[in-house]
Amino acid sequence: MNKSIIHSDNAPKAVGTYSQAVKMGDTVYLSGQIGLDPGTGILAEGFNAQAHQVFQNLRAVCQAAGGDLQNIAKLGVFVTDLSNFAALNDIMGQYFTEPYPARAAIQAAALPKGALVEADGVMVLSES
């Protein structure tokens, strides 16, 4: 199976030794996105702004791979404070419609660059 590296200029450059996404067959493995503005590289202010930027960044990488957020089968969300869980659900509802992806929401002690939220995922472009 061929392995393709996915890159979007509409999402932040990787801040480490990883790719924005890797495609193998019809499956795309999306690396974690934090709330960095892709144009400035600056982290958005506050949880809500960061969460919106996270989903916009994920969307950009999904689109670069030939899909969109609705193609995500599994979403992992990491937050530094689970008291933001209700806000996360509200914001996620602005980017996803039913049927929603499977999801885990996990509190982490810290995230890269001091981010308050990060999300990664697995996207399937077509059913086998």
Folded structure, characterized:
This protein is α+β, with helices and mostly antiparallel strands and 128 residues long. Helices cover 21% and strands 30% of the residues. The chain has two helices and six strands. It has helices at 46-64, 85-92; strands spanning 3-6, 21-24, 27-34, 72-79, 102-107, 117-124. A six-stranded mixed sheet has the order 1-2-3-6-4-5, with helices on one face. Helix 1 runs parallel beside helix 2. The protein is globular and about 40 Å long.
Number of strands: 6
**Arrangement of strands in the largest sheet:** 1-2-3-6-4-5
Portion in helices: 10-25%
Distance separating the two termini: 14 Å
Mean pLDDT: 96
SS summary, helix count: 2
> Structural class of the secondary structure composition?
alpha+beta
| Whole-angstrom Rg | 14 Å
Dominant shape: globular
Strand percentage lies at 25-35%
What are the low-pLDDT stretches, counting only 5+ consecutive residues below 50? none
Query: What is the H-and-E element order?
Result: EEEHEHEE
Pfam families: Ribonuc_L-PSP (PF01042)
Family: Belongs to the RutC family.
InterPro entries: RidA, RutC-like_sf, YjgF/YER057c/UK114
Protein name: RidA family protein
List keywords for this structure.
128 residues; alpha+beta; six-stranded mixed β-sheet; globular; YjgF/YER057c/UK114; RutC-like_sf; RidA family protein; RidA
